[in-house]
TrEMBL record:
Protein name: Beta sliding clamp
One Gene Ontology biological process: DNA strand elongation involved in DNA replication
Location(s) in or outside the cell: Cytoplasm
This protein's record includes keyword Cytoplasm: yes
Function field: Confers DNA tethering and processivity to DNA polymerases and other proteins. Acts as a clamp, forming a ring around DNA (a reaction catalyzed by the clamp-loading complex) which diffuses in an ATP-independent manner freely and bidirectionally along dsDNA. Initially characterized for its ability to contact the catalytic subunit of DNA polymerase III (Pol III), a complex, multichain enzyme responsible for most of the replicative synthesis in bacteria; Pol III exhibits 3'-5' exonuclease proofreading activity.
Pfam families named among the record's database cross-references: DNA_pol3_beta, DNA_pol3_beta_2, DNA_pol3_beta_3
Length: 372
């Protein structure tokens, strides 16, 4: 039994699915790649961990069908990565595989593929389509705001709120919140909602090609499945009810300013060097024409201040934020101009993009108390 495949075609697919494999797995099977040659002779490779798995098809030719086997992921990757591009002939025996290349060969043990745990989407699942470009934008703009908190597991992921006419992507850790709302690209007959664990949201955003037109999503009571191009990602959803994110977003805030994103970002990075290490507090003082950014560290007798010109100002207000959170949010807004809306120093501020882009983006950041 033999498989003929290009070294680059095989290695690229192994690397793309292999990023899910953890350094330490609860089940030894997850240290391996699962190879499946189906009844049509197509070659599929799968890698996974306890919470999910990624599968893809490999361009190659097998002279046999209906066989599956496990091969050590680390050994196979290390054996292939130093080779130049060339055709490979992989002979499959009962207990071992032999990889033959131009100047030599290497042999490694294999095991029966039936040992690999199953994870499937059953027939009761809901199915719908998402635009690939919309999903990449939504997940990338919000997933960094997700929490890593064992006491609040529902916040440890990206919430997909699938409505009939729009799709919302949400991430929050309690101190900040990110929400992207996009008009539905496809007609839907039913609503859906699920929490995708953060690590799988990041994997998905790295796997989906920039030119991907659409993804098929299937959701049942425990798992969610994404199909796109030649890939399939299946993982367990986070169980529980996601917080009512819309209720915490302030409406009709009385103070709104508009300014250049790059001007604000550069000033924040310079001034934040002088923040108190424990609090990381920066103070923003707005008026009708300018913004004064200040930071102090009284323990080490250092301070800084910088003025940024506003394009559109507001009534005077002074509000404090954690510098690292504010810098990360400002840096993530993909527009030349940004707006900051506030009510008073004790309530959350809302940051958003200021351009003609239809894809909305809302960042919410809770303030810190200012001790003058």
């Amino acid at each position: 039994m033999e498989i003929l495949v290009s070294k680059t075609a095989l290695l690229d697919k192994l690397k793309s699915v292999g990023r899910i494999i953890q350094p330490k797995n609860t089940l030894p099977a997850y240290d391996n790649f699962l190879f499946v040659i189906d009844e049509s002779g197509f070659i599929q490779v799968t890698a996974g961990e306890e919470g999910g798995r990624i599968s893809t098809n490999v361009d190659g030719k097998a002279d046999f069908v209906n066989r599956s086997f496990l091969a050590s992921a680390k050994t196979l990757l290390d054996g292939l990565k130093e080779m130049s591009e060339q055709p490979l002939a992989i002979s499959i025996y009962e207990k071992e595989m032999v990889v033959k290349y131009a100047n030599g060969k290497f042999t490694m043990p294999i095991e029966d593929g039936k040992q690999y745990p199953e994870m499937n989407i059953d027939d009761s699942s809901h199915s719908f389509l998402l635009s690939g470009n919309d999903l990449l934008y939504g997940v990338r703009q919000v997933q960094f705001c997700s929490a890593n908190d064992e006491l609040r597991p529902t916040m440890n992921g990206v919430y997909f709120d699938i409505d009939l006419e729009k799709t919302s992507y949400v991430g929050t850790d309690g101190s900040r919140l990110a929400m992207v709302e996009l008009p539905a690209s496809y007609t839907r007959k039913e609503r859906a909602g699920f929490i995708l664990p953060s690590k799988f949201a990041k994997l998905l955003s790295n796997l989906v090609p920039e030119d991907c037109l659409e993804l098929e999503v299937k959701v049942n009571r425990t798992n969610v499945q994404f199909d796109f191009d030649s890939y399939r990602l299946v993982c367990r959803m986070i169980e529980g009810r996601y917080p009512n994110y819309r209720a915490v977003i302030p409406q009709n805030q009385s103070k709104r300013v508009v300014l250049k994103r790059n001007d604000l970002l550069a000033a924040l990075k310079r001034v934040s060097v002088f923040c108190n290490i424990s609090s990381s507090l920066v103070v923003l003082k707005f008026d009708k024409s300018s913004l004064l950014i200040t930071a102090h560290d009284f323990d080490f007798s250092k301070s800084a201040e910088e003025t940024v010109i506003l394009q559109d100002g507001c009534e005077a207000i002074e509000i404090g934020f954690k510098s690292g959170f504010l810098i990360e949010l400002v840096n993530s807004i993909p527009s030349e101009d940004i707006s900051i809306s506030m009510t008073d120093p004790s309530r959350a501020a809302v940051l958003s993009r200021c351009d003609e882009e239809e894809r909305s983006l809302t960042y919410l950041l809770m303030p810190m108390s200012i001790n003058n």
